[in-house]
């Protein structure tokens, strides 16, 4: 199976590109990743390749290693993260109150909150 590094991946949009070791750019769609697995720029991956509508597309992507430690250098400072976490708690408290009253958030609002949670989790885990 070919290997390469993730050149770009946007988790919100669900796609990105892999720079394969043979120099080819390969389209990476979120559906090619195992359930619950995410990749970041610089992650080494192994993948299958199929011809897509606009060129080669990755299939059955398997992460081989975590991205380089340069990602940790891009972390937000602790004070900024504290403010983000406090705002997130406020957002979730409001959503919790609505749920206690039997009201679920709209689908669009729920997707936005889920995206924020994923992004904050990535910032903490960086």
TrEMBL record:
Q: Name one GO molecular function term.
A: nucleic acid binding
Any one cellular component term from GO for this entry?
cytoplasm
Question: Which Pfam families does the entry link to?
Answer: CSD
Regions crossing the membrane: none
Subcellular location, in the record's words? Cytoplasm
- InterPro entries from the entry? Cold_shock_domain, CSD, CSD_CS, CSP_DNA-bd, NA-bd_OB-fold
CSD domain span: 1-63
Q: What is this protein called?
A: Cold shock domain-containing protein
């Amino acid at each position: 199976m070919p290997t390469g590094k993730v050149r770009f991946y946007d988790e919100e949009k669900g796609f990105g590109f892999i720079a394969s070791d043979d120099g080819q750019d390969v389209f990476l769609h979120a559906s090619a990743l195992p359930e619950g697995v995410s990749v970041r720029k610089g992650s080494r991956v192994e993948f299958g390749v199929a011809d897509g509508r606009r060129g080669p597309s990755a299939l059955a992507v398997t992460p081989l290693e975590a991205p380089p430690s340069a990602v940790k250098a891009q972390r937000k400072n602790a004070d900024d993260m504290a403010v983000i976490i406090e705002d997130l708690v406020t957002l979730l408290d409001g959503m919790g109150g609505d749920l206690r009253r039997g009201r679920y958030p709209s689908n669009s609002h729920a997707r936005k909150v889920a995206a924020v949670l994923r992004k904050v989790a990535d910032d903490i885990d960086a």
